[in-house]
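Reply to dn_fold:

You asked what the input looked like. This is it:
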Amino acid sequence: MKLSKEEIQFIDNYLIKNEVKYWDVRLELLDHIVSAVEDKIVNNGISFNEALLEVHRGFGNQFIEFGVAKSDVFEKGLYQSNIGFKKFIRQKQKEVGRKYRKITWKHLKIKFTNIQFLIEYIAFVLLFISIYKFSPKSSFLIGLLVLILPNIYSVYYFFKDKSARKSLSFSMATGSAMFLWSMYNLSFYILKESYESVANIPYIIFVLVTCLFYPLVSVNIEVYRKVYKENKKIYNLKFYK
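and this is what came back:
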């Protein structure tokens, strides 16, 4: 038995009310719940309401029936607890995080076997050192701009397209870029101990760190583009079909 469009929309709204905020996670849950509800209706001969409530509980969402009128069991049962969905989202965050870390390192390995990128990298290093010799302060500012490019891409895609908003995949890709920024800050936190403050650190060190992190910056931008294209395709298929 196939659920009606109204029943599927009800399940989607029910997930939204249960604070499943990421649209890509909601789509995955929606497909799973719709299939599970259809199976229970056919195999167990129960109503849509009963099947959905059973599936809801099956996710580990707690429900205390004591003191709840029979007429309110369905409505209150669906929204009394969303702990199971929260656990599911945390698990998906871990899975997606691992996925993008693997993608990042895979792309990084490919970079260093790509002649075109190696030429680009060498050209960047030579140009950056030339800028440093001409104007150390300018090299510092340009270096900061280079290092925050993934974050700029994140903001750009966020405002450019709805598919990047409230998307777990894009959120985790952004987290990967923030990790890069954290590593950059950590390197200067360590150096600060030798120079008393960041202001005393020679500009040449900023230049060297920027050159060191450039491949990761390039990879993070590639990952952003990859995630954006995948998300946009799925989003358009599901919401504009």
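The two ends are 23 Å apart (CA to CA).
Hope that clears it up.
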